[in-house]
């Protein structure tokens, strides 16, 4: 009993010791600007989204989003620190303030967005994904029914784990989930033959397959298990930061819509400055209207963002386009004018 | 006068301690409010909505989080108990081999101990799992239907164990056995040389002498070391998450992600581990006392 009591006392010491000092009224946005550097949480393990390239630099769509944030808030895409996080660590890292922004293949869901759940705030969706199942071609598995009583490798602590259960339970198909904490272990054990199938977001399956010894030997089933809208997240109590992040993402989408690219941005700025009748372009590029100030950024933040990463289409092409290592067709990730889902509210 | 002074000092220390704990708990509560997380355990009764591949009691995704945690504990206890028994047996063999007169046996066991103790446990678990089991592909190791080992795990007299459980069980047992071996060797060496000479002069065989004379005297030195190895074993079992075994820690991990209740989950985890390890300590203390009593009786 004596030991138990002292143990509990020690435990409470440990837990309370972890928490950082109490700050409420200052927005994280001001803190980032004061610090002159953005701390961005990434995965670091998913080709095409965030991974270390041969030079030891982070690359990918999620990483470019981090760069856009740094360019928009601090004014320089290089003023950026990456924190590789596991699926489990990621939300705690935001809530404890270890990172400013999370840009890590995170699915936008109600429980994560709500104060009663994980208490986050989500920026606009940067990638429309869906969950799929990958099997070996030689296994002759054609659909979900064929996976009855088979083992399926899945990453733990993800929405994937819940979705696969929802689908299989609703169709009353018994299955055997083998869970790993790490995406690379899911692939390794699937390749070694522990599981008949592996499940994840389609983008991640494609990205994992690109690293397999024989990519053509694996197929992704047609069955769509769930919607997986991936979006960056920040602390739900900090509206000022959330606003800034939201409009930096919209900047990328609007820039593509207006045909503004990394190459022609200087031209476009000159064009806007010389032509007072181009009202909408002038507002977007911060020549008129003072829109940036309203969300706590510089008025010309859009210029910095576009100079750093280019528009959304350029980011997509660079990381997931035809000439990249992980090729994923754009489908839902096209702009709404081209039949996709990306749409930005107006910069007014 | 002296007594009052001492009493006063104690009082101050206690007050300081209570004050410190109070400040820290206050800090925790403020931070919980700040992060909007709140603090309650009602979510434990909500349906878990995840499936588990390994469960000793019936489990379906509609069962509660509390039930899932219980299943996790059963899985953990299962692997801890099995490894505890097996590593003790293996450890005794290794420990005795280390003190053996046979040079070959001595060298082999000392190599075993060196090799196992100098490599990280996580690495060894990964090795047993990815190389040891999954690396088998579908080449069976099959001993006349009694023992089968393949990618799907171990089958022993019709009892089938998953590769995750088997790898964790073997990995933990092998790792802990090397430490237990050293504890046992230490205990045996601690017995005076004279005791060996005396049983030999009494005409007892080496084996009889070891069992009847040396080991009973070595036990008081062995038990405390053994206790700490058992505690380590219990704690190390949480590495299960690395190789996909659904132990308490892995299940906790999933629950934290689904509910966002990291603090409550870790409190449950830490408290239950504390209880488990305190039980192990208490049990070993009882055994120790029992042995010491007998010792006095013999003397």
Report the strand count of chain B.
Answer: 4
pLDDT average of chain A, as an integer? 89
Overall geometry of chain B comes to: flat
CATH architecture identity of the largest domain in chain A: 3-Layer(aba) Sandwich
Give helix and strand order of chain B, one letter per element, not per position.
Answer: HHHHEEEEHHHHH
Relative strand content of chain B:
under 5%
Structural class of chain B: mainly alpha
Give me the strand/helix succession of chain A: HHEEEEHEHEHEEEHEHEHEEEHHHHHH
> What helical percentage do the residues of chain B reach?
over 70%
CATH superfamily descriptor of the largest domain in chain A: Periplasmic binding protein-like II
Provide key terms for this protein:
heterodimer; A: 348 residues; alpha/beta; D-Maltodextrin-Binding Protein, domain 2; 6-stranded mixed beta sheet; 3-stranded parallel beta sheet; 14 strands; 17% strand; globular; B: 299 residues; mainly alpha; MetI-like fold; 4-stranded antiparallel beta sheet; 4 strands; 71% helix; flat
Account of the 3D structure:
- The complex is a heterodimer of chains A (348) and B (299).
- Chain A folds into two domains: 28-126 and 231-334, 3-Layer(aba) Sandwich (D-Maltodextrin-Binding Protein, domain 2), CATH 3.40.190; 129-227, Periplasmic binding protein-like II (D-Maltodextrin-Binding Protein, domain 2, 3-Layer(aba) Sandwich).
- Chain A contains 14 helices and 14 strands.
- Chain A has helices at residues 2-18, 28-35, 61-73, 89-95, 110-113, 159-170, 183-191, 202-209, 239-257, 265-274, 279-284, 291-294, 301-309, 312-320, and strands at 38-42, 45-46, 50-52, 58-59, 80-84, 101-102, 120-122, 127-136, 151-155, 176-180, 197-201, 218-220, 226-230, 233-235.
- Chain B has 299 residues and is mostly helical.
- Chain B has a single domain (62-298), classed as Orthogonal Bundle (MetI-like fold).
- In chain B, a hairpin with a 2-residue loop joins strand 2 and strand 3.
- In chain B, helix 4 crosses helix 5 and helix 6 (193-201) runs antiparallel to helix 7 (206-236).
- The interface between A and B is large, with 54 and 49 residues.
């Amino acid at each position: 009993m004596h030991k138990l009591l002292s143990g509990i006392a020690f435990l409470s010491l440990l837990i309370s010791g972890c928490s950082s000092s109490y700050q409420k009224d200052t927005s994280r946005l001001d803190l980032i600007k004061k610090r002159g550097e953005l701390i961005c949480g990434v995965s670091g393990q998913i080709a095409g989204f965030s991974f270390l390239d041969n030079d030891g630099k982070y690359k990918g769509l999620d990483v470019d989003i981090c760069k856009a944030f740094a360019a928009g808030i601090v004014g320089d895409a290089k003023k950026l620190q990456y924190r590789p996080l596991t699926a489990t660590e990621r939300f705690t890292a935001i809530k404890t303030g270890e990172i400013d922004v999370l840009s890590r293949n995170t699915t936008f869901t109600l429980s994560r967005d709500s104060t009663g759940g994980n208490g986050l705030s989500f920026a606009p969706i940067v990638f429309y994904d869906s969950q799929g199942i990958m099997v070996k071609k030689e296994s002759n598995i054609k659909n979900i029914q064929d996976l009855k009583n088979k083992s399926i490798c899945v990453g733990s602590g993800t929405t994937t784990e819940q979705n696969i259960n929802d689908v299989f339970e609703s169709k009353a198909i018994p299955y055997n989930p083998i869970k790993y904490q790490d995406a690379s272990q899911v692939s390794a054990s699937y390749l070694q033959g522990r599981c008949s199938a592996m499940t994840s977001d389609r983008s991640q399956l494609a990205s994992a397959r690109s690293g397999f010894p024989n990519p053509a030997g694996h197929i992704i089933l047609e069955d769509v298990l769930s919607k997986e809208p991936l979006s960056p997240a920040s602390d739900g109590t900090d509206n000022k930061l959330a606003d800034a992040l939201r409009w930096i993402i919209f900047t990328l989408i609007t820039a593509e819509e207006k045909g503004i690219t990394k190459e022609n941005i200087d031209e476009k700025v000159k064009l806007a400055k010389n032509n007072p009748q181009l009202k909408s372009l002038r507002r977007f590029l911060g020549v008129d209207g003072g829109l940036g100030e309203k969300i706590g950024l510089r008025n010309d933040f859009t210029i910095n963002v576009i100079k750093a990463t280019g528009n959304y289409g350029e980011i997509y092409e660079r990381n997931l386009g035809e000439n990249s290592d992980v090729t994923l067709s754009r489908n839902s990730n096209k702009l709404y004018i081209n039949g996709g889902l990306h749409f930005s509210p107006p910069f007014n | 006068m002296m007594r009052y002074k001492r009493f006063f000092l104690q009082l101050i220390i206690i007050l300081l301690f209570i004050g410190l704990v109070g400040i820290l708990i206050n800090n925790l509560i403020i931070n919980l409010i700040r992060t909007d997380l709140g603090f309650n355990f009602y979510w434990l009764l909500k349906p878990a909505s995840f499936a588990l591949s390994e469960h000793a009691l019936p489990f379906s995704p509609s069962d509660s989080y509390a039930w899932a945690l219980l299943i996790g504990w059963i899985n953990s206890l299962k692997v801890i108990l099995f490894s505890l028994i097996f590593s003790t047996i293996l450890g005794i063999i290794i420990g005795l081999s280390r003190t053996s007169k046979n040079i070959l046996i001595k060298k082999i066991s000392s190599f075993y101990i060196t090799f196992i103790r100098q490599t990280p446990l996580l690495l060894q678990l990964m090795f047993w799992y990815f190389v040891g089991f999954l690396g088998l592909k579908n080449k069976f190791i099959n001993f006349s239907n009694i023992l089968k080992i393949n990618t799907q795990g171990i089958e022993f007299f019709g009892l089938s164990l998953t590769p995750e459980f088997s790898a964790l069980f073997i990995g933990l047992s092998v790792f802990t056995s090397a430490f237990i071996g050293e504890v046992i060797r230490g205990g045996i060496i601690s017995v005076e040389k004279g005791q060996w000479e005396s049983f030999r002069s009494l005409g007892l065989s080496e084996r009889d002498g070891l069992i009847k004379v040396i080991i009973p005297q070595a036990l008081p030195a062995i038990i405390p070391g053994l206790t700490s190895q058992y505690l380590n074993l219990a704690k190390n079992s949480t590495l299960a998450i690395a190789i996909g075994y659904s132990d308490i820690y892995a299940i906790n991990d999933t629950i934290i992600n689904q509910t966002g209740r990291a603090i409550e989950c870790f409190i449950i985890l830490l408290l239950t581990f504390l209880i488990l390890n305190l039980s192990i300590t208490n049990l070993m203390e009882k055994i120790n006392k029992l042995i010491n009593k007998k010792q006095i009786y013999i003397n």
